[in-house]
Design brief:
- The chain is mainly alpha-helical.
- It has two domains: about 40 residues, no CATH class; about 110 residues, AhpD-like.
- The protein is about 60% helix and about 0% strand.
- It is globular and about 50 Å long.
- The chain starts with 13 loop residues before the first helix and ends in a 17-residue tail after the last helix.
């Protein structure tokens, strides 16, 4: 077990208490991963500004990216959280599983997005021309491409935080995949 307990409201700096209160009112609780950011005086506000910034992507598209990247990075916390959030945004459980595998047979545009996201995450941005061409042929723009890459970076930040701290997952566990995704 890693030596990281989940910080409580009593353990954090004053400026983070408002963030805890906001999360509590919007989400109904403070997710453990957000509480973990509060080990730093500045990280919660900085991360939330990054994560909640304006983007050309809609919520379903962001969840496609979040599911793919969390699987590539092996983050059980984010796999669980984004399976739940993906369902809240209209995906079925079967679709969230497929997205975590890096494709979407149920939607051609999401398929191109999932494949691009997986290629970027796995290959650290060094993707094939074919993957990029398929993304653009699906109707995405260069603005969307930049926003996808920013979203991948944002999600990887949380994936890495959880993978290092291993704080308890406070969402229903995501289904186990029967195959390795890389």
């Amino acid at each position: 077990m890693r030596p990281f307990n989940v910080p409580t409201r009593n353990d954090i700096k004053e400026q983070n208490k408002k963030i805890f209160d906001d999360l509590e009112s919007k989400v109904g609780f403070v997710p453990n991963i957000y509480a973990t950011y509060a080990y730093s005086e500045h990280a919660p506000a900085r991360y939330l500004a990054f994560a909640n910034g304006k983007t050309s992507l809609n919520n379903k598209e962001k969840e496609v990216i979040n599911l793919v990247v969390s699987q590539v990075n092996g983050c059980t916390y984010c796999q669980a959280a984004h399976t739940a959030i993906g369902k809240m945004n209209g995906f079925t459980e079967e679709q969230t599983i497929e997205l975590r595998k890096g494709h979407a047979s149920f939607n051609g545009k999401f398929d191109a997005l999932a494949k691009l996201s997986k290629a970027v995450a796995v290959n650290r941005g060094k993707i094939s021309d074919t993957v990029l061409e398929n993304f653009f042929n699906a109707g995405y723009t260069k603005e969307n491409l930049v926003d996808v890459i920013v979203n991948i970076g944002e999600k990887a930040t949380t994936n890495f935080l959880h993978n290092v701290t291993d704080v308890p997952v406070d969402f229903p566990a995501a289904p186990e995949l029967t195959e390795t995704v890389s």
